[in-house]
Write a structure and sequence with these properties.
By secondary structure, the protein is of the alpha/beta class. The protein folds into 3 domains: 7-352, TIM Barrel (Alpha-Beta Barrel), CATH 3.20.20.70; 387-478 and 617-665, NAD(P)-binding Rossmann-like Domain (Rossmann fold, 3-Layer(aba) Sandwich); 482-615, FAD/NAD(P)-binding domain (3-Layer(bba) Sandwich). Helices cover 30% and strands 18% of the residues. The strands form 7 sheets. It has an 8-stranded parallel β-barrel, surrounded by 6 helices. Bound molecules: flavin mononucleotide.
């Protein structure tokens, strides 16, 4: 509301020829929907704009087929315009500025789809391990690239974008490859001195300003620090020099630290505001507006960043995913309603795995178009049900939050004294404190809702559940970790159980701790094995970390945490054995087997911690279902469903989603037809093709 101390966050700001209405800026982020699910992508952006973000940007958008990112947007030519226009329309409909991040991924991509040889300042193997090399660009290639970039900028303007980016961040794109001493070994005017290495970037900014600068702001996304010392860009060395050299050339500086694994650090490894100390200097060098990021969810910190002159605009990717309505909530003073990002990077994982974006805190993310879900509104109830939710973990609390909003009278029974289930238990593990936010937000909402009652310390049996007059029962009793070592690697129980003390994550949650030399067997591969190893090492255990995968916590590759996780495990554990199975336990010993050769060795241990499979805790569900099945035909029985980990153990995000799905549909089962819209790519003959035929048979 006007007159609030947060008013500075709601003052407009001129960015080149355009004006942003407030200081909330959704920086470019991919979303797994991209050009393959364009309506879904556009709707998601529109919802962000509706939530009050003054600017909403697309993800990176390739300007040419020699930069063929497998998952992102494209603006190769005008054929790509309709998809982008759709996003612009959605964003403009809510009075926000639309930004587009033009990109050429140079040797960062392999171009397996287009078969174009990747291009680079100097000959180099492409990123990753694909057997592909990039070739050196000659001066004509550089002129061509500038032309493609300029054409894309003009097309972006035609599509209606207000902000056009040059993307020189995250060690990913051609202008950065030219900038970097590591990747530019050229001897011509584009190599050698920093003045030469920055030439292409300077030319791109000037080209873009000349082409579209009359109507569009020209933004530069630049990583001022790469955390590899003076070997790379550093805010104390060449990163700063570049900002000084280009100071007032772009209309907007969008700055961060690169590469993405640094920029997108999880809460396990960094706190809110972690980039501030690296990017703070930018404002002292340029007179142009500066936007920065750092998992900003706290209104107070945002205000301080602005008023202290650290930033002009509060940038956000993940916080805008967790709460698309964050700006509006600050404006309206609804601080308790802000759904804070927990910094888990399940969003990043969805993008990496090329599926629509998901979010632990915001289960509607990625479902805005295909299921018609909105992050703030939900249809009023359309049945007369009264709902009993048994279990107050992430799924149960999420279900109750939204059932209440729909107007359903809901009771949540929990056997523990506190609510939150695994979100609370896991939040006590090293680095996972922000997991609490999953419970806190939902409890905050429920406590304001007279329709929902919380009943702690209530161990509900089937008899009690069926003795009530609830017409719908959702069993959300979670899951248990397997105690016998079965999981992905072992289909049958581990031989030798009973010869040494065995612990599972559930024992750790309950406060039971092994002592001495401990083998931790991680056949789960997400974060649990790693954080428990860290915890035990911190309490004095000598931990031998064993996993059949070739990397520690291998699935965290998708959340981009993996190298940090492995470093920490190497540093904290006594020994790390990858590609190794725990073959058997014996008195005081564990036998380990090489996953490839089967070669075995024995190590002395005092205890084993098994982080393998999980089983749904669904006994109560089956008990209720069995009793209902035996009801006499003249009695109309209540309906019972399972939600969250009780249905199938998975991520925190999956549990929350399951609870949300139940609140919307009163079910979690499968239907005959998909319960969401699909966007089918039109066949060529169905498209209104303009211009030349896209291929020729030579006749
Ligand atoms: N940055 C880009 O410049 N281009 C991208 O396409 C891009 N994709 C991203 C996809 C996801 C799912 C996320 C979470 C981030 C992405 N980023 C990308 C980085 C973000 O713009 C941002 O700099 C980073 O996430 C740190 O900001 P945050 O802490 O507010 O999330």
């Amino acid at each position: 509301a006007a007159g609030s101390r947060f008013d500075p966050l709601f003052t407009p700001l001129k960015i080149g020829p355009v004006t942003i209405k407030n200081r909330f800026y959704q920086v470019p982020h991919c979303n797994g929907m991209n050009r393959l699910h364009p309506s879904a992508m556009a709707r998601m952006r529109g919802i962000k704009a509706e939530g009050g973000w003054g600017a909403v940007c697309t993800e990176q958008c390739d300007v040419h087929y020699s930069s063929c990112h497998p998952r992102e947007l494209r603006l190769w030519d005008q054929q790509d315009l309709p998809i982008l226009r759709r996003a612009v329309e959605e964003i403009h409909a809510q009075d926000a500025l639309a930004g587009i991040e033009l990109a050429h991924n140079g040797f960062h991509v392999h171009n397996l789809e287009t078969r174009a040889i990747p291009i680079a300042p100097s000959p180099v193997a492409t990123r990753g391990i694909a057997p592909v090399h990039a070739r050196e660009m000659d001066l004509q290639d550089i002129r061509d690239f500038r032309r493609w970039h300029r054409a894309a900028a003009l097309n972006a303007k035609t599509a209606g974008f207000d902000i056009v980016y040059i993307y020189a961040g995250h060690d990913m794109t051609l202008p950065v490859h030219f900038l970097s001493r590591r990747t530019n070994q050229r001897k011509d005017e584009y190599g050698g001195s920093l003045e030469n290495r920055v030439r292409l970037l300077r030319e791109l900014i000037l080209d873009t300003k000349e082409a579209v600068g009359d109507r569009c702001a020209v933004a530069l996304r630049f990583s001022v620090e790469e955390l590899v010392g003076t070997h790379g860009l550093s805010c104390e060395d060449e990163g700063r020099d570049v900002v000084e050299m280009l100071a007032d050339l772009p209309d907007l500086w969008d700055v961060n630290i690169g590469d993405f694994s640094n920029d997108g650090q999880t809460a396990r490894f960094s706190d809110e505001g972690f980039q501030d100390r690296y990017v703070r200097f930018v404002k002292t060098v340029t007179g142009k507006p500066v936007v920065g990021v750092g998992r900003y969810t706290s209104p107070d910190l945002m205000l301080t960043l602005l008023t202290s002159g650290a930033l002009d605009l509060i940038g956000a990717a993940r916080p805008s995913i967790a709460d698309p309505f964050l700006p509006r909530k600050i404006r309206d003073g609804d601080f308790d309603d802000i759904r804070e990002c927990i910094g888990c990077n399940i969003c990043v994982a969805s993008d990496k795995l090329a599926v629509p974006l998901r979010c632990t805190q915001n289960p509607t993310m990625g479902e805005e178009w295909r299921r018609g879900w909105h992050p703030e509104y939900i249809p009023a109830k359309d049945t007369e049900d009264r709902v009993l939710v048994i279990g107050g973990g992430p799924a149960g609390l999420e279900a109750a939050t939204w059932l209440g909003r729909r107007g359903y009278e809901t009771l949540v029974a929990e056997r523990r004294p506190d609510f939150g289930g695994r979100a609370l238990q896991e939040a006590a593990l090293p680095g996972l404190h922000s997991w609490r936010r999953v419970a806190d937000w939902r409890l905050g909402q429920i406590r304001k809702d007279p329709k929902v009652t919380l009943l702690p310390r209530n161990d509900i049996t089937a008899e009690i559940a069926l003795d009530t007059d609830f017409s719908l029962i959702a069993v959300a009793t979670g899951a248990v970790w397997r105690t016998d070592g079965t999981g992905r690697g072992h289909a049958a129980p581990l031989p030798g159980l009973g010869t040494v003390p065995v612990f599972t994550p559930d024992d750790i949650f309950a406060g039971r701790r092994p002592q001495g030399r401990v083998v931790l067997y991680d056949d789960d591969h997400y974060y649990m094995g790693g954080v428990i190893a860290e915890l035990l090492a911190g309490t004095g255990c000598e931990v031998v970390f064993v996993t059949p995968e070739s990397l520690v916590s291998a699935w965290t590759v998708n959340t981009t945490e993996q190298p940090r996780v492995q470093k920490r495990i190497i540093e904290t554990c006594a020994e790390v054995s990858v590609s190794t199975k725990l073959a058997l336990l014996a008195k005081g010993e564990a036998e380990l087997a090489c996953r490839f050769t089967g070669r075995r060795r024995r190590i002395g241990i005092d205890a084993a911690v098994l982080v393998t499979g999980q089983m749904p805790r669904d006994g109560l569900y089956h008990d209720i279902a069995t009793r209902i099945a035996a009801y006499k035909p003249d009695i109309s029985p209540p309906r019972v469903v399972r939600i969250g980990d009780c249905l199938a153990p998975g991520t925190l995000a999956a549990a929350v989603f399951s609870g949300h799905l139940f609140a919307r549909t009163l079910d979690t089962g499968l239907s005959d037809r998909p319960p969401f819209r699909r966007e089918n790519v039109a066949l060529e003959r169905d498209q209104a093709l303009t211009g030349d035929a896209p291929y020729s048979n030579g006749s």
